[in-house]
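Quick one:
INPUT:
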């Protein structure tokens, strides 16, 4: 009987040790996952400089054992354009708000924004510029009166790790009316009237997106849940979010994917004037969301009539990487429309002129503006079948600003591309 009791005690002890071992291993796994996430966050100004200057070229060993550079980009560029072949988002023509947080101090909350939680400006390894990390609570943008036709764009960095066993948090953003600085955060004294609620839940094999639209404090429309299988490939990277509002019509894109296209989703009139972003309570190294490059613009560009009638079309909707002539994929929809307008008049000759803001020196900006104009020409010819003989290029650098370079929105307006009929 004593031997039986001893065997039972040993068995229980072994079970406990095994459970403890599994818990210890799981803890190590979570710690390793968090350690991987911690690598992406950098609060030092030096990391921003590195991000702007560009990543160090990747090197591989050749068969002879010596180091050689592996050029990345051309193959990816072709893949990107193919992936965006059906991307039809056209950014608004007139910039109403632009914020890339360049004027804000690292580690601080942005001066023009409002919150009931906490957030801070950080840099991200491998990403350009500054980002607003949503630590907890809601973040409110500056207020501005929005017309009935406008577009919204922002970059969203999704810091989720597929190796983690933790439950993934969600990300939520809103457009609403009657915004007044931080008033929306006072739930007891603010009643919703017109609003668009965009909710996103994340899993290891999909993302689920949905819209809830309100008009005069009543539900106008609740969309079906949209399941985005394969979206997890965007975890630990940046996704460009684009929204187009044309009176009651709403269209939403995540990267090249059109998530929603609803003809009667928006309150009429909506009178939206502020945005809200909401993420999980987090701390450094844990799942989190970051936003940057928020651009809100009005108007729908009419390339064809402007080229034919006035002989000039100017846009800052063609966007480039910082200090680079590489065109961002989110610009492909606009470039496609420009190509269509040019191809409708095969005898027309067009000069493409690049412009920059005044960051950097005059000589480098002049060179960069030429390179950007040439990049636009090359994509029109190589990917959209515009005849090369129809196009020429020029660059003005920062010599012909449209607005003051003292503000982020002024710089955004000065970074532009002109198409001039000659």
């Amino acid at each position: 009987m004593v031997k039986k009791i001893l065997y039972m005690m040993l068995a229980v002890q072994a079970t406990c040790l095994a459970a403890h071992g599994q818990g210890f291993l799981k803890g190590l796994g979570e710690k390793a996952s968090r350690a991987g996430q911690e690598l992406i966050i950098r609060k030092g100004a030096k990391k921003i400089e590195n991000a702007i200057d560009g990543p160090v070229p990747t090197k591989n060993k050749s068969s002879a054992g010596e180091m050689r550079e592996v050029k990345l980009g051309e193959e990816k560029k072709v893949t990107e354009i193919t992936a965006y072949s059906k991307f039809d988002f056209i950014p608004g023509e007139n910039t109403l708000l632009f914020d890339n947080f360049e004027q804000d101090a690292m580690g601080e909350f942005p001066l023009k924004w409002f919150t009931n939680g906490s957030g801070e400006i950080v840099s991200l390894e491998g990403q350009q510029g500054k980002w607003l990390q949503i630590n907890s609570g809601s973040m409110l943008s500056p207020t501005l009166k929005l017309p009935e036709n406008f577009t919204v764009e922002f970059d969203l960095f999704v810091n989720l790790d597929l190796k983690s066993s933790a439950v993934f948090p969600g990300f939520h953003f809103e457009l609403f009316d009657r915004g007044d600085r931080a008033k929306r955060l006072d739930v007891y004294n603010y009643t919703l009237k017109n609003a668009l609620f965009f909710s996103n839940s994340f899993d290891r094999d999909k993302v689920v997106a949905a819209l809830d639209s309100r008009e005069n404090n009543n539900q106008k429309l609740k969309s079906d849940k949209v399941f985005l299988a394969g979206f997890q490939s965007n975890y630990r990277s940046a996704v460009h979010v684009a929204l187009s509002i044309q009176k009651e019509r709403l269209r939403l894109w995540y990267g090249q994917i059109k998530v929603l296209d609803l003809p009667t989703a928006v309150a009429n009139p909506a009178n939206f004037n502020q945005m809200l972003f909401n993420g999980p309570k987090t701390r450094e190294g844990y799942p989190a969301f970051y936003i940057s490059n928020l651009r809100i613009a009005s108007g729908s560009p009419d390339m064809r009539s402007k080229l034919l009638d006035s002989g000039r079309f100017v846009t800052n909707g063609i966007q480039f990487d910082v200090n680079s002539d590489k065109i961002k994929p989110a610009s492909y929809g606009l470039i496609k429309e420009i190509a269509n307008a040019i191809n409708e008049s095969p005898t027309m000759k067009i000069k493409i002129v690049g412009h920059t803001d005044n960051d950097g020196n005059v000589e480098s900006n002049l060179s960069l503006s030429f390179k950007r104009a040439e990049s636009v020409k090359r994509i029109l010819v190589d990917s959209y079948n515009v005849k090369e003989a129809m196009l020429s290029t020029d660059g003005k650098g920062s010599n012909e600003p449209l607005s003051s370079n003292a503000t982020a929105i002024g710089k955004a307006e000065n970074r532009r591309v002109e198409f001039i009929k000659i």
